[in-house]
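Structure ticket #2291
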Amino acid sequence: MVEWKTTNGLTDYDEAVAFMEAHADAMARGEADELVWLVEHPPLYTAGTSANPVDLVDPDRFPVYPSKRGGQYTYHGPGQRVVYVMLDVGKRGHDVRLFVQQLEEWVIAALAEFNVTGEIREGRVGVWVQRDDKPLTVTGAKREDKIAAIGIRLRKWISFHGISINVEPELDHFTGIVPCGITEHGVTSLVDLGLPVTMGDVDVALRRSFDQVFGALDRGSV
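Resolution: structure written out below.
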């Protein structure tokens, strides 16, 4: 059974990590159900296991937290929906690559509810949107902006960390890092795309599209 938890306000990052690790350990012992946790954080940067120090452009701007999730530097802050997924990947097939693909498909399905076409790109983690409203790149290609990031960790086949979707964050806050090591593309949000979307709207879309991708039973909200 999958439980859903929404925490209002801004959640301290260290407290969130401690909660996830404790819940993942309880799941591994068979003492807790799968959990999808929806939060927002105060402005901060996290450094994944592949983070390159040169990508931290402004180290003094916001707190920087080392993270054991996969990936490089990313930003979290108000207006961004962070979705922590504590799911049993072992019972879901022991296939990490498939699980990451499912997370991508989940984000894409949720974005589609707002008529936004999210896409994935080889060699680039996360979900991207083409910007037909912006000038072409120096190579003549259409510009693509990142709208969602993905970074997970597994312990005893239990996942934690997860995804983040830019609803209405302060996009200037991303300039303190090179997001996920990508320099030739930008960052966008649903509101930046001209959509009057709220955090609650995104939560509904995420919940509605979850079962389409993962086929899991829904226990309810806390």
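Closing remark: The CA atoms of residues 84 and 162 lie 5 Å apart.
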